[in-house]
Amino acid sequence: MDKLLIIGTGLLGSRIIEMASEEFEIVNTYNKNPVDLQSTVSHQLDITNQTMTFKLIKELNPDYTIHTAAHTGVDYCEVHGSEAYSVNVTEARNVSETSGEIGAKLVYISTDYIFDGAKGR
């Protein structure tokens, strides 16, 4: 059975865990609030910590990674720009690079607040 790593266990991450639990061995990460789902093993991870992120992903060695963690509050992100950048950009790069190093396929899920397809960089 392939191993699926879900980074972020908010609404989206938790729902993916529920949907994929019969087809994958699932591991997940959380920052502050662990989820208690019988079909998965949870690991605490501060995704802004590059060393911790690299170490845990390499240790877990998933076949697939679905990255759902982010600051999604637009107003909060506008006021706390450097923190939002760290969480929404730098950590996404950390997850992407580490997944690539171990050969894990990566799915990154965003919102239209980051890029709606009509405008942006």
Features:
single chain; 121 residues; Rossmann fold; five-stranded parallel β-sheet; 5 strands; 20% strand; globular
Backbone structural class: alpha/beta
Helical content band: 40-55%
Summed over residues and divided by their number, the pLDDT gives a mean of: 87
- Percentage of residues in DSSP E strands: 15-25%
Q: How many structural domains?
A: 1
* Annotated CATH architecture: 3-Layer(aba) Sandwich
What's the count of strands? Answer: 5
Instruction: List the uncertain runs.
Output: none
- Individual helix count: 4
Neighbour order of strands in the largest sheet: 3-2-1-4-5
What can be said about the biggest beta sheet?
5 strands, parallel
The oligomeric status of these chains comes to single chain
Compile the SSE list and pairings.
Layout: E1 3-7, H1 11-20, E2 25-30, E3 40-44, H2 50-60, E4 64-67, H3 74-79, H4 81-102, E5 105-108
Parallel strand pairs: 1-2, 1-4, 2-3, 4-5
Helix pairs in contact: 2-4
